[in-house]
Amino acid sequence: MDTSAEADEHVEDNRRHWDERVPIHVAGSFYNLDGFRAGEEDLDRFQLDEMGDVSGLDLVHLQCHIGLDTLSWARRGARVTGLDFSAPAIEAATELAEQVGLDDRARFVAADVLDAAQTLGTHRFDVVYTGTGALMWLPDITRWAATVAALLRPGGRLYLAEFHPLTGVLDDDHGATAAGDYFARGARTYTSPGTYAGWNAETVHNTTTEWHHTLGDVLSAVAGAGLRIEFVHEHATIPFQRYGALVADGGRFRYPDHAAALPLMYSLAATAPA
């Protein structure tokens, strides 16, 4: 387990990493900002079904990056707040909100997710939302869950859609055999240039640290924060080709028909006491 000082150093490395990659993500084709400006969105169908009508709800998106998912919920009628530790990401999200005419119902705040309750003051929300690729950047999942609970109004709801933690330990070619220890917690530090949105991009801040949280860790943290778990659903599709063997399926990827399928994503909803 990291000490607090070690975790802080890792988080700062991660912040520099993400700050540097924001302009690459904004300018490249991976996030398709031109398509978004034209009205397209890329939320999973299951997220739309499970979230239901968000019209008139106050929603905070933790770890929002450049704000596409945040603004997608705003387009569907929510009043949204996006929060991310990268100031350049927040600047890009704010600019995008203005470009698509949603700046009257969207605001973006630069802050560490674990400090969100203090940063946002007394404001409380109907929905706390967090999307794919977020939880692995958090050194303390218990503190995260307590933050979520502090942000919710009585009866408010956490909705989480995330990569299944099993995907982090399977082999890259087929996603069929274990290539790591599912139960190994603690920091995992990597050095890799470029970005998933442009592997050939020239970058300087290439060291990042992730923290592996099992599905049980997440569920226990949410329940331990006093939230009542409504459901946990595991899903057979993922937004990108996580393993070489996956095949395209309507803008998502899944295991081929002849292969034994494993969960690629999961979603979770939990409610605060009324």
From TrEMBL:
One of its GO terms (molecular function) is methyltransferase activity. Residues 61-158 form the Methyltransferase type domain. The lineage of its organism: Bacteria, Bacillati, Actinomycetota, Actinomycetes, Streptosporangiales. The keyword Methyltransferase applies. GO terms for biological process: methylation. This is Methyltransferase type 12. The keyword Disulfide bond does not apply. It comes from the Bacteria.
